[in-house]
Amino acid sequence: MKAEFLDALKQIEREKGVKTDLVIDALKTALLSAYKKKYGPAHDSRIEIDTKTGEIKVVKTITDGEEKLDVEVTPENFGRIAAQTAKQVIKQRILEVERDLMYEEYHNRVGDLVTGIVQQNDQRFTLVDLGKVEALLPPNEQVPGEVYGHGRRLKCYIADVRRSTRGPSVIISRTHPGLVKRLFELEVPEVYDGIIEIKEIAREPGHRTKMAVASRDPDVDPVGACVGPRGSRVRMVVSELNNEKIDILAWSEDPAEFVKNAMSPAKAKKVIIHQEERTALVIVPDDQLSLAIGKEGQNVRLAARLTGWRIDIKSESQFRAEEEERLKSLAEEGGPYC
C-alpha cells in the first residue's frame, strides 16, 4: 500500500470527518481476519501499517529460547488482499460516520417542527421524506381520519430519534400537543419571540384542542394575538390540523379563574375550589350545561386535563336545589346553616 493511500485517508478525514487512526485500526483488524481466513491460524501474529510510507506487514512473534523475536511473514500477494480490504473498511467507516452525524443532527432536533412529503403509506406505517432522511409516522402518532396520500406535504413534530443499523430512525407525530405549539410559533411572532408563553395544551387529535396562554407584556393580549386579526392566525393552524377546533384561553395562577376560563366556550357563573381533593365545582347557567360538558364529555374532559383539576359541573338550578335541600336538612337537625 502506497503513501498515496494515507494521503487519501487524510482527505477523507477532512471531507467526511472519518478519523485516519480509526480507519487504520479497523483496517488492521480486518486485514488480520482476512489473513487468517486465507492462510489459516495466525497465533501471535499482527498487522503493522507504517503511517509514513503506507507499507503493510504481517508480523509474527516467535520464541527463540528465552528470547522473543518479530518475524515478517507477509505473503507475496497480500497487497491485493490489502487493497480490497481497505476499500471495504473505508466504505464501512464512512457509512458509520455519516450515520452518527445524521443521528446527532436529528437527535438534537427532537421537539422541532419539520415538513416532509409522504412517500409510502399502508396499515403498518407511513414513511415521510424529510430530505436527508425518511421518517416514520407510526399508527399511534397518526390523527384518526387523516389521509396520508402519496406526495402529500405534511408538517410534523419530531417525537423521538433512535439508533438503528440502517441509520437514525426518526419518529414523527401528528398527534403530539407539541405540534400545536410549534405551529403557533410559526404563525404568531409574539409566541416565537417569547412575549407570549403557551402554558398548557390539552388535545384530542382530530377533534379539539384547548390551549392556555399568558403574556409577559401587560400591553399584549395573549388570546387576541394568537387568534389574530379576524382569526387569521388561528385559522392557519386549524387548516394545517384539518379543521381541528382550537379553544385559546387566558392562563391564570388563580385555580378558580383558570378553571373558569378553561370551560370555554361555556360561560361559568361560579367556580368552587376544593384544594385538598384537587376538585373544582363549576356552576353554569341551565342553558349552557350541555355546552359545558361537551359532546361525549369532551369539553370538560379537556378542561380537566388542561388545568390539572378534577371538574364537576352543575347547572344553576341544580346547585340551588341542592343547597336548599342541604340548608333544610341542617335546619331540621338544628345544626348551623353554613
TrEMBL record:
SMART domains referenced in this protein's UniProt entry, alphabetically: KH, S1
Protein name: Transcription termination/antitermination protein NusA
Domain of life: Bacteria
Keyword Protein biosynthesis part of the UniProt annotation: no
Main location: cytoplasm
Pfam assignment, any one: KH_NusA_1st
Keywords assigned: Cytoplasm, RNA-binding, Transcription, Transcription antitermination, Transcription regulation, Transcription termination
Organism: Candidatus Hakubella thermalkaliphila
Function: Participates in both transcription termination and antitermination.
Subunit structure: Monomer. Binds directly to the core enzyme of the DNA-dependent RNA polymerase and to nascent RNA.
The keyword RNA-binding appears for this protein: yes
GO molecular function terms attached to this record: DNA-binding transcription factor activity; RNA binding
Source species taxonomy: Bacteria, Bacillati, Actinomycetota, Actinomycetota incertae sedis, Candidatus Hakubellales
GO CC, alphabetical: cytosol
CDD domains with a match to the protein in the record: KH-II_NusA_rpt1, KH-II_NusA_rpt2, S1_NusA
Gene3D superfamilies in alphabetical order: 3.30.300.20, Nucleic acid-binding proteins, NusA, N-terminal domain
Location(s) in or outside the cell: Cytoplasm
PANTHER family with a match to the protein in the record: TRANSCRIPTION TERMINATION FACTOR NUSA, TRANSCRIPTION TERMINATION_ANTITERMINATION PROTEIN NUSA
